[in-house]
Task: inverse folding
């Protein structure tokens, strides 16, 4: 049986420019009638009056929403009955939650993606600078009011980011030190200068490799952990609960992590330097036939304090970057599991990229300064 004519969706146009008046029942039951009515509408519609619609459901609202977008008509110009307003607002809010369009190719699309990427990165840099300022202000406030300091949380994070990472940092730096010594010896052997492997490994690890490898390891290990931990709390609304209780999430969640990394990353850097030098010593003693006493004597004669200082000076800056980005990305989680994964990936990419960029800038600066 067909629905009575009075209940079928009707669209009547009048005036110039054209205005449409809707009537009938714009529901799923009359989906075909809705399509026919909208298909008969002129393209130069100025407004739509839907106050005469008897019944309206989500299908009717979506059809009108898509019709208005196709014809460039402002959806706010469609007049609905007051008792339909809540439904229309709810459908309009979720209408964009559809699968994204397939990736477009071409020069214009590439420039469009580049522009959006630059804009997003600019926003991330501004957010990071603002977050650094907020954390610094509240850190100073903590020193003025020691009751805000969380020693238990700080010690816990020191163990998590520092002591638990010692085996990994030591093993990787030992192997990298051995590889650097082995590769350097292959080239220096041709010039009869194998003994200079000592300077190669020592300077490389004291100035660059020790702090850089440690920062990269912690960027992948610690920054992701910070983001996942805080992001999970954000998705479970625990951060909102902290604010409701009158406490500051920066004091509870951010400052202990920042202080823990500021203390532990320089110590891990020192461990990385020691094991990198041991890796070079192992290759020198067992692969290059350099006696251990001669290797150590050469290291003692050629190592300078300034190389050690250059490496250690960079450690606190890298710690600050890793901890701030990890916490900031966690606080920016929007409440879904997908958002937690995206922010965790973003924190790792940002920290590793920024650490490498800053290390390169620092290397150039120290070289130009002759230090």
Result:
């Amino acid at each position: 049986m067909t629905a009575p004519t009075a209940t079928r969706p009707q669209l009547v146009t009048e005036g110039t420019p054209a205005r449409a008046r809707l009537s009938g029942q714009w529901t799923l039951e009359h989906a075909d009638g809705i399509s026919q009515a909208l298909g008969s509408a002129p393209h130069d519609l100025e407004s739509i009056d839907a106050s005469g619609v008897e019944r309206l459901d989500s299908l009717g609202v979506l059809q009108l929403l898509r019709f208005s977008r196709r014809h460039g008509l402002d959806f706010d110009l469609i007049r609905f009955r007051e008792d339909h307003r809540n439904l229309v607002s709810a459908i309009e809010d979720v209408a964009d939650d559809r699968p994204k369009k397939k990736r477009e190719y071409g020069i214009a699309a590439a420039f469009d993606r580049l522009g959006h990427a630059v804009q997003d990165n600019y926003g991330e840099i501004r957010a990071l600078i603002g977050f650094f300022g907020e954390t610094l202000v509240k850190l100073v406030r903590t020193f003025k009011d020691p009751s805000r300091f969380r020693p238990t949380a700080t010690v816990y994070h020191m163990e998590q980011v520092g002591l638990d990472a010692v085996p990994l940092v030591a093993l990787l730096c030992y192997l990298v030190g051995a590889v650097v010594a082995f590769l350097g010896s292959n080239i220096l052997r041709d010039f009869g200068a194998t003994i200079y492997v000592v300077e190669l490994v020592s300077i490389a690890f004291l100035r660059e490799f020790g702090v850089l490898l440690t920062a990269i390891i912690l960027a992948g290990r610690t920054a992701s952990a910070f983001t996942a931990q805080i992001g999970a709390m954000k998705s479970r609304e625990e951060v909102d609960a902290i604010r409701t209780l009158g406490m500051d999430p920066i004091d509870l969640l951010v400052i202990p992590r920042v202080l823990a990394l500021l203390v532990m990353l320089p110590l891990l850097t020192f461990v990385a330097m020691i094991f990198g030098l041991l890796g070079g010593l192992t290759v020198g003693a067992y692969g290059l036939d350099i006696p251990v006493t001669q290797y150590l004597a050469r290291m003692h004669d050629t190592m300078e304090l300034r190389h050690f200082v250059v490496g250690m000076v960079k450690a606190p800056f890298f710690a600050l970057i890793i901890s701030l980005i990890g916490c900031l990305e966690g606080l920016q989680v929007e409440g879904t599991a997908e958002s937690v994964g995206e922010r965790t990936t973003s924190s790792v990419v940002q920290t590793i990229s920024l650490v490498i960029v800053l290390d390169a800038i620092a290397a150039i600066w120290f070289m130009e300064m002759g230090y």
